[in-house]
Amino acid sequence: MQNKVCLFYAFMCVLGTLLPLAAFYPWLLQQGLNTPLMLEQIRQDPLSLFAWLDVGISAVVLISFILLENRRVKLTYAWTAILATCLVGVSLGLPLYLLLRERYQAAFTQTDLN
Fold first, then answer.
1. Which of 24, 77, 92, 96 is geometrically suited to a Cys-Cys bond with 88, CB 3.0 to 4.6 A?
2. How far does CA 102 lie from the centroid of its chain?
3. Where are the domains of the chain?
4. Using an 8 Å Cβ cutoff, are 91 and 68 in contact?
């Protein structure tokens, strides 16, 4: 069961990277890294603003959770989930953190069994 959960999280990491970047990449090719234009376009459409606010708040919550949870459970590479959240988004950061946590718990359980 543990392997299926890890495979699911790994698959979600791939989807969580490819789908958002596939949507963003054409805009980036056309406009370049034009932050003022991006912010203007986000503010123009209420649905876009809603989505960006939702993702932004989710990212802050996820990063806070990772930092607080890592005080209790010392995941070696927890920082990669924070970096992934900042560079790609919650769609990568959350499944990556869950994958790291699942693998840690599997190793911890395996150590307890021996």
1. 92
2. 15
3. 2-113
4. no
State the Cα–Cα distance between residues 42 and 39, nearest whole angstrom: 5
pLDDT on residue 113: 58
How far, in Å, CA of 13 to CA of 7, rounded?
Answer: 10
C-alpha 33/C-alpha 67 separation (Å) is: 29
| Distance between start and end Cα atoms, the chain | 19
What's the pLDDT tens digit per position in 49-104?
Answer: 999 999 999 999 999 999 999 998 888 899 999 999 999 999 999 999 999 999 98
Of 36, 59, 55, nearest in space to 47 by CA: 55
